[in-house]
Amino acid sequence: MNGKAHSFESPLGIGALLSRLELSGKKIAVERNGEIVPKSAHAETMIRDGDQLEIVVAVGGG
Amino acid sequence: MGAIRDALVVAGKSYSSRLLVGTGKYRDFAETRAAVEASGAQIVTVAIRRTNIGQNRNEPSLLDALPPSRFTYLPNTAGCYSAADAVRTLRLARELLDGHDLVKLEVLGDPQTLYPNMPETLAAAETLVKEGFKVMVYCSDDPIQAQMLEAIGCVAVMPLASLIGSGMGILNPWNLQLILEKVKVPVLVDAGVGTASDAAIAMELGCDGVLMNTAIAAARDPVLMATAMRKAVEAGREAFLAGRMPKKLYSATPSSPTEGKIAPKAA
Questions:
Q1: Which of B27, B46, B142, B199 has the smallest C-beta neighbourhood within 10 Å, fewest atoms?
Q2: In a 10 Å sphere around its CB, with 0-12 CB exposed, 13-18 middle and 19+ buried, how is residue B89 labelled?
């Protein structure tokens, strides 16, 4: 996740992961293994062993 | 909303301000907001970056300082060195901003000059336009490349006036003029503006707008510089529309009447 390894005791969906990270409802976007996971699919998308997740926000930039 | 006089039209949408500003390099969000307000900009660029996992709790966010309901966000691909990374970044941006599709594409060539890598830029533009993005594109000041980007379907071309963050001003007005003659989509100077006169020169040349970040953010007083830039872009635009007098080396024509002068004093 964002370049760092994380492990979880039980199977986890993206929606549940975001709520653990206190990111639910925040303006973020999630990519899994190079593919966008749309907000509408967060709840149902289960994370698998070895998945690469990117979670991004908008920041100041030129 | 009534029709805007002399609007900047990008991808079918009208903007009264021809100054676009970046939101990076400010001390804090309060300063970002004050500078953006002073600039009068309606389009603001933002970058897409990883969240700080575990530090999100009540961290203030850019979106609170500059509500997307009031400003048109222009997510960029700053820091991308390949077409693939730029495309991925803007797909994330579109997801993040609920389907918003107006984007700024920039694919850089090297970290020292931040000069655009044009083959990668063209490749990314091709993919993004096919995917329905409205692409404003940072590019070299080469009229042929600008035409290629227009042919692909980019909604605006944004040549650099000098290197990003250099503040060196308009180094090659001739090339900008060639681009202005060659392409029909809006041409905005992106990068290189250092002070108000640089912005005015870009607009006097006939550019449709100017995008800047460092010139404002790195000024001693960013908010005051933002005001200066707003005025410079407006003044430059009006001077362009007014049509400047021709430059003449000689043939002095006085501004005051030559008739009715008092008699010269006898020597």
A1: B27
A2: buried
